[in-house]
Amino acid sequence: MDVKAVVTAQYLAALEMLKQVITKCPDDLWVSANPAHAGAFWHIAYHALFYTHLYLQPTDADFIPWSKHRPNLNAFGPPPWAPDEVVEPGEPFSQAEILDYLAVCQQEVHRQTQAVDLAAPSGFDWIPLNKLELQFYSIRHLQSHVGELSQRLWAEANIEVQWVGTKE
Predict the structure, then answer these.
(1) At what angle do helices 3-24 and 131-157 cross, to 10 degrees?
(2) What is the pLDDT of residues 43-69, one digit of tens each?
(3) Into which CATH architecture does domain 3-157 fall?
(4) Beta strands of 1-66 (E only): which ranges?
(5) Are 7 and 166 within 8 A, CB to CB?
(6) FRET label pair with 85: which of 75, 113, 117, 148, CA 20 to 30 Å apart?
């Protein structure tokens, strides 16, 4: 069994499901900030992509944020090291912009999962896992937000998202 091929396929399947929720999301739901949720739909999609992109890198020092990244937008509130800092997300990213970022992450999946040493340390001081465990951790994080956004589409707009089991 080629473990790297399996990891790649599962990342791409989760990203394909995220692509569905992004493309199916109505404009009003895309920008609305529902107090029952951690943030606006676009912000959650961005957050999921940011951490997918980050954790695909060999180390945190190797990470180069997406060209349109805004400081602290990856989180849903102030950073732990500055709890009194007010973080304003600013203008929403458009669906097209988030889809562009998703394409960057798809390319990174292909590039990084083939080069990774799965037995190496995570490369992130705050994550005490090896690289194989980090891949599972990251895919679970991505898929949890896909599930969250899928549920919002269903509950608020009666829109279904199709399951993607694997993607090459």
Answers:
(1) 20
(2) 999 999 999 999 999 999 999 999 999
(3) Up-down Bundle (1.20)
(4) none
(5) no
(6) 148
